[in-house]
Amino acid sequence: MSAPLRIGIAGLGTVGAGVVRLLQTHGSLLEMRAGRPLRITAVSARRREVDRGVDLSGYAWVEEPSTLAGRDDVDLVVEVIGGEGAAAATIRAAVAARKPAVTANKALLAAEGVVLAAEAEAAGTVLRFEASVAGGIPIVKALREGLAANATTRIAGVLNGTCNYILTEMERTGAAYEDVLAEAQQLGYAEADPAFDVGGHDAAQKLALLATIGFGAAVPMDALKVEGISGVTLEDIRHARDLGYSIKLLGIAQRAGDELEVRMQPSFVPGSSALGLVEGVTNMVVVDADFVGQTVHEGPGAGAGPTASAVVADIVDIARGHGGPVFGCPAEQLTSPAITTLGTAAPHYLRLSLDDRPGALAEVAGALARHGISIDRMRQMSHETDSAPVLIVTHACVRDTLDRALEEITALDACGARPIAYRIEVV
Amino acid sequence: MSAPLRIGIAGLGTVGAGVVRLLQTHGSLLEMRAGRPLRITAVSARRREVDRGVDLSGYAWVEEPSTLAGRDDVDLVVEVIGGEGAAAATIRAAVAARKPAVTANKALLAAEGVVLAAEAEAAGTVLRFEASVAGGIPIVKALREGLAANATTRIAGVLNGTCNYILTEMERTGAAYEDVLAEAQQLGYAEADPAFDVGGHDAAQKLALLATIGFGAAVPMDALKVEGISGVTLEDIRHARDLGYSIKLLGIAQRAGDELEVRMQPSFVPGSSALGLVEGVTNMVVVDADFVGQTVHEGPGAGAGPTASAVVADIVDIARGHGGPVFGCPAEQLTSPAITTLGTAAPHYLRLSLDDRPGALAEVAGALARHGISIDRMRQMSHETDSAPVLIVTHACVRDTLDRALEEITALDACGARPIAYRIEVV
Predict the structure, then answer these.
(1) Using a CB cutoff of 8 Å and minimum separation of 24, what contacts does A269-273 make?
(2) Separation of alpha carbons B212 and B206, rounded Å
(3) Pairing of strands B101-103, B127-128
(4) Which end of chain B is more exposed for a tag (fewer CB within 10 A), N or C?
(5) Helix (H, G, I), strand (E, B), or coil: what is residue B117?
(6) What is the DSSP letter of A58?
(7) Do B290 and A274 touch (CB under 8 A)?
(8) What is the DSSP letter of B415?
């Protein structure tokens, strides 16, 4: 019998309590798979007197999470506090003590992951973060290990369950964005302050982490132009469906010459494609790589059970002695390519509102033409107001050219507001 | 710089040549990810004078593959010979030399995997087989490691690309089984002797390996009643579609009380489900597990590139020092539950041919009723011959009860031949 792996858990929110419950539930199964008992010895959280639905009486209670790593009875630290301050201190203390750390903290990793990885690798210890990306889908492991023999070509993902729930519910029920968001908040699928999710930032952090593994490249968050879903209307969703598409908050990472293209934006994807069919809070990552071709990875993107599954899988790996660099190649060998969010040429969907007067459509078409953008389809909707909704599907064009044309169109007297533009992605 | 991992490759067919090509293509990428150079030093195949499209001039040529492991310049043996004789000898020689082995050999593992695993674990070495199941999908790793924190509830898979290609082409083009099979053979998607694939045996071996990992249980192949796709007709496919289903060669492994249920049979699955939408030679594995819920894993099920991707991922793991038991828990702790292929109660689709005379349908319905099987839907097709095609969808019933009823029906004067029965699976 090997010695137990003694675990200190920092953070006892939904995820932390889920990790405790999992370790308590599957003690003998995990011992068999990990080759040694996995034993919680110490826990830490802000408030002690909270009923978390799990029995914590056998564990030492630690007030200051960053002291967990220094304890003689802790071999591994789980950081599920969230945020950056105390979480970073907790992980850094583990690294300083040369003890492995497991985290679910995408924000911290997206902000400081490369630095933390370098520190962990210099200290000869392990930092794992499966739970930070796509909840229960073992996609970090798949990219870092399962697909390690390939040069990654593209990573495409639906990575935020809140956004995907809202978009699929809007499509399914015909309810407006605000109503579905309120419902999602009631169901616990959206935070009271949903800005981080619906603004695309949560998904962008996850995409950046996947891109770092897949392309061996640092992806600074401030290099990303992130677009959220709050501007998506029921009209857009209906038009998309009429054209054979679904609207998804889609993340794409792919090489573009010497640059790395990393985008997070609402996009039209073919309604019958795997990504077009992802429903509700489910996440999906589609990886294209040179030898293997395309693999698809789908599963629950959040929740106590899926997140605990990912955290404990990392613990089992560490118990088995599986190490290796944090992002699959040593932090010092990660490259720093220029990041572009523009994307290659693609058709775009445009929705605009035009004064109902002669010549208005011609002015729009003229502005597009001056930028070399040709029109695949155009449709003016019937209307009862003075301004007419107009839909345009362009032929392939580059986003910055389109943006310049849209500026001209916005400046037209006939145009009510800046047109909405969504990329039509071939996935 | 760490010492190179020196690789001996036994077998230079499509897969072996693919492994050589991958290792030659991605030398520096793999060195970065594995932490050390991966270097082929010796190769072995039956015939030397074959143009395999890769340069083998830098490698020692070994006549007898089982001698690879004994060489001083070989640290790891790749077995991609296939079959059981020479392949088993090659792997056993590696185990005897306490050197890790990587294989793509599902037949050998399905037959002798538990014994080989016990031998490798006793010798303190590693045996990996990602490429044996579902080609390029890293599903062995996902089950063994990524989902290791869970008790597996069910594994469902479309695991044979040949069968899935044939079934989806029949549905897509309306061509008959024999014609699509011939086309698949021309395209290289089916073997000259397709019996092993279309009979379901290839898929059953893969399912058995996944079940061993997922449920920690030995699955002797002779305990499985395997049904292939050669009896599936265009009529069945059309009827399935009319009812909202696709026909897939579906493997299911799940606990059934103290028994382990392992089935491989053509089944109706909802046409809009993930499994119902798997097309062509693509494979898919859907895993249900207690904490994570459902994850879906999809990708190319065969081919030189995907298989090489899986083989080399195993090599990278070993180069990093990742060991652990072959099936995710020690071979000596694998259980030996009774295996059942019957399955829980489910609706079934029946197709039979009845003499067109009064009372024939009543006799069929009576036989079903005597076994407690009630009918959800029944349809007699228009026909120009003396016998009428009849379709029946039953309410949920257990297969062995149904089989007894079908025996009675087969014995009826009015019945032309034993009815066709396919399970309708909720996935």
Answers:
(1) A269/A245, A269/A425, A269/A427, A270/A244, A270/A245, A270/A246, A270/A426, A270/A427, A271/A240, A271/A241, A271/A244, A271/A245, A271/A246, A272/A244, A273/A427
(2) 10
(3) parallel
(4) N
(5) helix
(6) T
(7) no
(8) B
Nearest to A145 among B277, B306, B317 (CB): B317
When computed from its CA atoms, the radius of gyration of chain B, rounded to whole angstroms, is 24
Could you give the CA distance from residue B307 to residue B330 in angstroms, rounded to a whole number?
Answer: 26
Give pLDDT tens digits along chain B (427 positions).
589 999 999 999 999 999 999 999 999 999 999 999 999 999 999 999 999 999 999 999 999 999 999 999 999 999 999 988 999 999 999 999 999 999 999 999 999 999 999 999 999 999 999 999 999 999 999 999 999 999 999 999 999 999 999 999 999 999 999 999 999 999 888 888 999 999 999 999 999 999 999 999 999 999 998 999 999 999 999 999 999 999 999 999 999 999 999 999 999 999 999 999 999 999 999 999 999 999 999 999 999 999 999 999 999 999 999 999 999 999 999 999 999 988 889 999 999 999 888 888 999 999 999 999 999 999 888 777 788 889 999 999 999 999 999 999 999 989 988 999 999 998 7
Q: Nearest Cβ partner of B292 from A294, A299, A324?
A: A299
What residues pair up with A44 in beta bridges, in sequence order? A10, A62
Which residues, listed in sequence order, are joined to residue B157 by a DSSP beta bridge? Answer: B251, B285
Length of chain A as a residue count: 427
**Nearest residue to B394 via CA among B380, B409, B379, B378:** B378
CA distance B256 to B245: 25
Which chain A residue is nearest to residue B143, measuring alpha carbons?
A138
Residue of A230, A261, A276, A419 whose CA lies nearest to A346: A261
Nearest-by-CA chain A residue for B294: A299
- Taking every pair of Cα atoms in chain B, the longest distance, rounded to a whole number of angstroms, is 85
Q: How far is CA A37 from CA A2, B188, B292, B335, in A?
A: 8, 48, 21, 20
Say if residues A308 and A173 touch (Cβ distance below 8 Å): no
CB-based contact B132:B82 (threshold 8 Å): no
d(CA A407, CA B345): 63
- For residue B317, give the nearest of B111, B52, B140, B69 by alpha carbon: B140
Integer Cα distance of A264 and B107 in angstroms? 44
For residue B69, report the phi and psi dihedrals to the nearest 5 degrees.
-65, -25
Residue B234, classed as helix, strand or coil, is helix
User: B387-394 and B348-355 as β-strands: parallel, antiparallel, unpaired?
Assistant: antiparallel
Contacting residues of B for A333, CB less than 8 Å apart: 32
Task: Quickly list DSSP for A250-313.
Answer: EEEEEEETTEEEEEEEEEEEETTSTGGG--TTEEEEEEEETTTEEEEEEEE-SSHHHHHHHHHH
Residue B313, class by beta-carbon neighbours within 10 Å (0-12 exposed, 13-18 middle, 19+ buried)? buried
Please return the burial class of A67, using the count of CB atoms within 10 Å of its CB with bins 0-12, 13-18 and 19+.
Answer: middle
Taking the C-alpha atoms of residue A138 and residue A141, their distance in angstroms, rounded to an integer, is 6
Q: Which among A22, A151, A291 has CB closest to B149?
A: A22
Residue entry with tokens 């404990």: A312
A292 contacts B149? CB cut-off 8 A:
no
Instruction: Say whether A309 and B328 touch across the interface (CB within 8 A).
Output: no
A393 DSSP β-pair partners: A349, A377
Q: How many CB atoms lie within 10 A of CB A43?
A: 27
For the stretch B36-39, contacts whose Cβ atoms lie closer than 8 Å and that sit 24 or more positions apart, written own/partner, are B36/B1, B36/B2, B36/B3, B36/B4, B36/B5, B36/B319, B37/B4, B37/B5, B38/B4, B38/B5, B38/B7, B38/B312, B38/B315, B38/B316, B38/B319, B39/B4, B39/B5, B39/B6, B39/B7
Q: Report pTM.
A: 0.96
Beta bridge partners of A5: A38
Joined together, the tokens standing for residue B319 give 């180069």
